[in-house]
Amino acid sequence: MKTRYTSLVSVKKNIMQKSERVVQNANANLSSAYIALEASSKELEHIQLPLSGKITLLLASRTLLDSQRSIIRHNEEWIEFAKKELIDAKEQLKIDMIEFEKFKYLELQEIKEILKKRKIQEAKDLDEIALMTHARNNKTKVA
To answer: What global pTM score does this model have?
Structure first.
């Protein structure tokens, strides 16, 4: 049954579904950030320092360690960003769900009102038909 809220409910549902997809993407992004952090931490553990040799070899391994630590810091920042992104997406989803439910409720109330009016009109029509039939039956009995 179409009401004046039907199109709004449809739009709000689409917005809510879009917000759900954003939350799913934010969850996937957070998972990727955790995987990247774990991988970079494992990579740092696998870096071996030279115990003897030229100073350039020691400096190269030190640069490699610094680079790997920088990657780890970057991945930690990525996790914090992804967490914030997920929290924001969940808040927006909550707002969109409330809006959707609000308009869905209004639509339901309008449908109930329409059905109530139809039921009253149908009762009036049936009463009118009963009166007409009763009047016709009384005329045929009198005549």
So the answer is: 0.74
- Is residue 21 a contact partner of residue 108, using CB atoms and an 8 Å limit? no
Measured at the alpha carbon of residue 89, what is the angle toward residues 88 and 95, in degrees to the nearest 5? 90
Inter-CA distances, 97 with 11, 70, 114, 143, Å: 12, 40, 26, 68
Q: How many other C-beta atoms can be found within 10 angstroms of the C-beta atom of residue 2?
A: 9
Query: Residue 143 has what DSSP assignment?
Result: -
Give long-range contacts, CB 8 A cutoff, 24+ apart: 11-17.
12/96, 12/99, 12/100, 12/103, 12/104, 13/100, 15/96, 15/99, 15/100, 16/93, 16/96, 16/97, 16/99, 16/100
Helix, strand, coil percentages, rounded to 5, for the chain: 90, 0, 10
- 64-98 pLDDT, tens digit per residue, is 999 999 999 999 999 999 999 999 999 999 999 99
Position 142 scores a pLDDT of 63
